[in-house]
């Protein structure tokens, strides 16, 4: 069915499709393969070690902990 004046795509729908495409491209640029600040994989490494949530677990056992002090 060809587009005519009566059955055109609404402007808000047309603009929202383009906005979603642009938003997706910007998101890929910012977050694909590493980003800055807390989105960077390296920034979370210290937090993972502190919470013992690394995979595989990397526990830091101090000498005093081994003796039971």
What fraction, in percent, of the residue positions are helical? 40-55%
Category by helix and strand content? mainly alpha
Q: Helix and strand string, N-terminal first?
A: HHH
Strand content: under 5%
Secondary-structure blueprint:
Blueprint: H1 11-31, H2 45-51, H3 63-66
Description:
By secondary structure, this protein is mostly helical. The protein has a domain at 8-33. The chain is built from 3 helices and no strands. The protein has helices at 11-31, 45-51, 63-66. The radius of gyration is 25 Å and the shape is rod-shaped. The N and C termini lie far apart (81 Å). 0% of the residues are buried. The model has no long low-confidence stretch (mean pLDDT 74).
